[in-house]
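Per your request, structure below.
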């Protein structure tokens, strides 16, 4: 690992190297040191406890140690039954298969060859090396500007970027800081020496702040008119959270009369779960509005 790299994998409290488990199926996330794994959840712990308790009960009846029982078909059936008990019935397995190897074989059929290789799936936007920061394994997201000639009834707005991470350009793997001015002119997500990293999954941790960025445009206005914008979270039809409205009257000096809209707020007081995130932009002068909405997920 590179010394001084703030993004390098590090052992955190609760992590263990070389963790070994008796259970036939994994009951927690592990890491190959690309990213820190999430800690074991209470539900995963209940699955593990059920597997070990049931193995301790059945193994002596079959004249086996718990370890030998878990290595056989009974251990696999016991594991699937435990997952069904905790997460709901998903696997087609019967309790008799845990206690009787013949029953397991009868229902599963003859063994077949499995060739398992590790794959990494990446989308078309995957970039092996980010242009501005030089970080490996980033994901490019398009920043779209609407057709301003066709947008007459609503306020034209760009695509909305949701993020929980900003990267200091000084931490680039190569010296990208010398191109800071060029990057800020070309990429709207690079501002004040930091780059906003778009969230691809739209899954956000409550322990980190959330960033929202978009642009509004007033190409036909004689001068930039003030806009009001705010972000709202809904759960179903219920409003769960809303930022204080911001009033923005300063924009970029270009022909589009671009007005950047930026939000930064904490998520720690919200409950984990699914939300609909809505961005609202209002123009009091022209009585126009724009709305954008997308589902998000908050996790502890």
């Amino acid at each position: 690992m590179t010394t001084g790299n703030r993004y390098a994998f590090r052992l955190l409290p609760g992590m263990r190297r070389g963790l070994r488990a008796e259970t036939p199926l994994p009951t927690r996330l592990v890491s190959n040191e690309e990213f820190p794994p999430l800690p074991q959840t209470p539900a995963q712990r209940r699955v593990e406890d059920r597997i070990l308790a049931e193995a301790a009960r059945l193994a002596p009846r079959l004249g086996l140690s718990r370890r030998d029982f878990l290595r056989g078909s009974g251990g696999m059936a016991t594991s699937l039954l435990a997952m069904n008990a905790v997460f709901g019935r998903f696997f087609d397995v019967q309790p008799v298969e845990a206690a009787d190897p013949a029953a397991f074989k009868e229902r599963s059929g003859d063994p077949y060859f499995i060739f398992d290789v590790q794959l990494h799936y990446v989308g078309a936007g995957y970039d092996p090396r980010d242009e501005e920061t030089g970080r490996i394994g980033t994901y490019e997201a398009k920043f779209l500007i609407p057709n301003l000639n066709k947008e007459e009834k609503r306020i034209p707005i760009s695509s909305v970027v949701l993020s929980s991470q900003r990267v200091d350009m000084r931490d680039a793997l190569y010296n990208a800081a010398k191109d800071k001015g060029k990057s800020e002119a070309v990429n709207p997500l690079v501002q004040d020496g930091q780059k906003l990293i778009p969230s691809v999954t739209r899954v956000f941790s409550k322990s980190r702040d959330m960033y929202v960025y978009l642009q509004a445009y007033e190409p036909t206005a004689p001068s930039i008119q003030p806009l009001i914008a705010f972000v709202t979270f809904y759960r179903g039809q219920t409003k769960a959270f809303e930022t204080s409205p911001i009033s923005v009257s300063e924009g970029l000096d270009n022909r589009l009369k671009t007005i950047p809209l930026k939000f930064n707020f904490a998520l720690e007081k919200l409950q984990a779960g699914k939300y609909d995130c809505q961005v609202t932009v209002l123009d009091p002068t022209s009585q126009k509005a724009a709305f954008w909405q997308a589902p998000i997920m908050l996790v502890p």
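The first helix runs from residue 42 to 58.

Regards,
D.
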